[in-house]
Design goal:
Helix content of chain B: 25-40%
CATH superfamily of the largest domain in chain B: P-loop containing nucleotide triphosphate hydrolases
Shape of chain A: elongated
Mean pLDDT of chain B: 86
Helix content of chain A: 55-70%
Shape of chain B: globular
Low-confidence stretches of chain A: none
Largest interface: A-B, 32 and 39 residues
Strand content of chain B: 25-35%
Structural class of chain B: alpha/beta
Number of domains of chain A: 2
Largest sheet of chain B: 6 strands, mixed
CATH class of the largest domain in chain B: Alpha Beta
Largest sheet of chain A: 4 strands, mixed
Oligomer: heterodimer
Strand content of chain A: 5-15%
Strand order of the largest sheet of chain A: 2-1-3-4
CATH architecture of the largest domain in chain B: 3-Layer(aba) Sandwich
Strand order of the largest sheet of chain B: 6-7-8-3-9-10
Order of helices and strands of chain A: HHEHHEHEHEHHEEHHHHHHHHHEH
Distance between the termini of chain B: 29 Å
Number of helices of chain B: 10
Number of helices of chain A: 18
């Protein structure tokens, strides 16, 4: 199947795709964009509100000192300069106070008024009055210190030691240990989770991008009628092989650049990653990822090329390509949802099913230990899929590229399979 | 000696029988015309000869052997529906098509450049195809068709869309290639070109061969009782003349079919009597156009296509 004609097509495809300015820009831009998005997100999170002023009204006056002490130690007072005006009032007095401060609240002279009624000592329900009360980050910031004061006050009279109190106050801290067959039980960080996320996303992007690119190029060849000139020298299957190989090598090179960037960035001193997110990529996993990705590219670029051959304009093709895109999009969402719990049964099934396993299996493998037989099974099934669908795809392609005029019906496409061409 | 034999080729697309048992022989060193109206089955026949379509029945033999990839390598094919990669440069495009035929290297590039000079395109060799005029794009396509020195050159409607200057240029090159001993097969629905260039023709209509043979033999066969006249003045009275069987009008010229060969003298006399100015009077001559009309009828309007393949 591979001869000088396929090589000539392949060379042109590589020249057209791999060395095109748009493609190089795209390949370099994606990691750049990831860094930029990450940076913007970090920046947005880091620019917390500053110098906010609050009235902090407590019904029980003896708690004022405790809140003052606790807040004085907190980040939002120390770093962000939040100011609290501590007051003590009964419920009725507070109502009048609230009424008198209404204007100030509306004009945002003060950000908000907290009211800690006596009942809060039993049910921990605190009231917050503000022009914009739904402030999640503010609630998150104050939650800890307020809880601490209430808790300590609650247990104060219950003759508990300081240590006992500390214990009671603590949340549960999970430390994950990865149990793997052939290595010692080790503490697992979040590094592989991050990698699984990043890789799943890149795989998804790359498959869609290369698929679409191949489809467009087939449509262009068909639309511009160049395909007949080419077919006078090569067979449709040779042309298709050259195109699929060209797209797969291009996609592989792109993924190589992306992965290298990830690995270099994550292992360089530039970004001193905390211990929890260090990567633990075994060589077998890396090999599986590369081979699996290449198989995925061949399958999907082949299918997209076939689809492109059926239509002769991008509009018809894009509506026709939806079912095919679902084969990439649905596994992508399965892979994402799996990150929460890699042991979900549907994740296990999806990691074995042809098409879906291309995206789900590598994500699953980077999270948990997947039995060897499952890895081999999934890959074997995908390779078998290639052998099963390509004679059909090749047939449709051979007929499709020379079809012109109105958009064929799917029933007609099925009939093409019976045509001798 | 026949260079190529086409035997009983048939091809159907669904219910449409595009080509129905077409057979013809292409002699060595000839210019062979595959002629017929649009949709007659010429392109499908050529595609089967090129192995782009597999025939339902029949075969194409190259010196007695069924054609395959080897034939493809020896053919230069200019399809009716032309196209090039718009973003590719002129020289790259030409070299790409040569590579597909297994030709590469400096010699081929040198030859490509010679052709570009001949077609006055050398200065544009590094331009993108999309920056070229349509006529120039056709020239690039033609160079790509002949660069690998094919023994067979198949041209499907080669003159469509060309201006008179480029038509002449292409015609000269076709004749030059013939002198080099190449076999040239071209399809056209323009009878004048076929008449001027071809040695042999095969006329196809509705997927079937309706006429074939050497052009001179065919013409002499059909020319009996036929007179070609180039004239000035009204000749509409001829329809009423008793010894005239049929008149075909072609602008300044007419073709008259007589009831008996001996009536040509009477016809000449009558025209002079009626004051018609005669520039040319050719007894026993007939144009290919007239032959075609006689055989295929008058339905020359283009068949509408709602979708399907070019046939």
């Amino acid at each position: 199947m591979f001869n000088y004609r396929v090589l000539a097509v392949l060379k042109r495809e590589l020249k057209e795709k791999l060395f095109s300015k748009a493609f190089i820009a795209m390949t370099l831009l994606v990691p750049g964009l990831i860094v930029v998005f990450g940076g913007v997100q970090a920046l947005l999170y880091s620019t917390d509100s500053k110098n906010l002023a609050f009235d902090f009204v407590i019904e029980k006056s003896e708690l004022i000192g405790r809140f003052q002490n606790e807040f004085a130690e907190s980040k939002f007072v120390k770093d962000q300069g939040y100011q609290f005006n501590y007051l003590s009032m009964t419920r009725n007095e507070f109502q009048n106070h609230l009424e008198s401060k209404k204007e100030d609240l509306l004009q945002e002279k003060i950000t908000g008024i907290y009211y800690v009624p006596n009942s809060a000592l039993a049910d921990k329900k605190i009231e917050y009055y503000s022009k914009s009360p739904q402030n999640i980050s503010l609630n998150r910031e104050l939650d800890g210190p307020i809880n601490k004061v209430l808790l300590e006050y609650y247990f104060n009279n219950k003759s508990l030691s300081v240590d006992e109190l500390k214990f009671a106050r603590r949340g549960v801290d999970f430390t994950g240990f990865k149990v793997a067959k052939d290595e010692e039980i080790s503490e697992a960080g979040y590094g592989n989770l991050v990698l699984a996320y990043a890789f799943t996303f890149l795989l998804y992007m790359s498959l869609l991008m290369m698929g679409q690119m191949t489809m467009q190029s087939v449509i262009e060849e068909k639309g511009s009628k160049i395909v007949e000139v080419i077919l006078s020298s090569v067979s449709p299957r040779e042309l298709m092989t050259g195109k699929i190989l060209g797209a797969s090598i291009t996609g592989g090179a792109q993924m190589g650049v992306w992965l290298l960037t990830i690995i270099t960035v994550s292992s360089s001193a530039l970004l001193a990653l905390p211990k929890e997110i260090t990567l633990n990529v075994k060589p077998e996993l890396a090999v599986f990822i590369i081979v699996n990705f290449f198989i995925g590219l061949i399958i999907f670029t082949g299918l997209f090329a076939t689809l492109g051959s059926i239509f002769d304009n991008p509009q018809d093709a894009s509506s026709g390509s939806l079912p095919l895109m679902m084969l990439i999009i649905i596994p992508f969402f399965i892979a994402l949802s799996m990150m929460e719990n890699p042991n979900k049964p549907y994740a296990e099934i999806a990691s074995l099913v042809p098409f879906a396993s291309i995206i789900v299996m590598p994500a699953r493998m980077s999270l948990i230990e997947v039995p060897i037989w499952q890895q081999v099974f999934a890959m074997g099934l995908n390779i078998a899929t290639i052998f099963l669908i390509f004679p059909i795809a090749g047939k449709i392609y051979s007929v499709g590229v020379l079809w012109t005029g109105k958009k064929p019906k799917w029933s007609e496409v099925v009939k093409w399979l019976k045509l001798k061409n | 000696m026949n260079a190529l034999e086409v035997k009983d080729l048939s091809k159907s697309f669904g219910k449409l029988k595009a080509v129905d048992k077409v057979s013809f022989n292409v002699p060595e060193g000839s210019i062979f015309g595959l002629i017929g109206r649009n949709g007659a089955g010429k392109t499908t026949t050529i595609r089967m000869m090129m192995n782009i379509y597999l025939p339902d029945e029949g075969e194409v033999l190259l010196k007695g052997v069924k054609v395959g990839q080897e034939f493809k390598n020896r053919v230069g094919y200019l399809p009716e529906e032309r196209g090039l990669y718009k973003k590719m440069k002129v020289l790259d495009t030409i070299m790409y098509f040569a590579n597909l035929k297994g030709k590469s290297g400096k010699d081929v590039q040198k030859k490509a450049e010679e052709y570009l000079k001949k077609f006055e395109l050398y200065d544009r060799r590094l331009s993108k195809i999309e920056d070229l005029s349509k006529g120039n794009q056709q020239k690039v396509q033609f160079i790509a068709t002949v660069l690998h020195s094919p023994d067979f050159i198949i041209l499907d409607e080669p003159f469509s869309g060309l201006d008179p200057v480029n038509t002449n240029l292409l015609k000269d090159i076709i004749l030059e290639l013939k002198r080099e001993g190449k076999v040239i097969i071209f399809s056209t629905h323009l009878m004048e070109f076929a008449e001027k260039l071809c040695d042999h023709i095969c006329m196809i209509d509705k997927g079937k061969v309706i006429l074939q043979g050497s052009l001179s033999e065919i013409k002499s066969r059909f020319a009996k009782r036929n007179v070609s006249i180039t004239h000035q003045g009204d000749v509409s009275f001829l329809n009423e003349v008793q010894f005239v069987e049929k008149v075909e009008y072609f602008g300044n010229s007419i073709g008259v079919k007589l009831k008996a060969e001996s009536d040509s003298d009477n016809l000449l006399k009558l025209l002079i009597e009626k004051g018609v100015k005669i520039k040319k009077f050719d007894a026993n001559d007939i144009s290919l156009h007239e032959i075609f009309l006689q055989l295929a009828g008058n339905e020359l309007e283009e068949k509408e296509r709602s979708g399907g393949f070019y046939v």
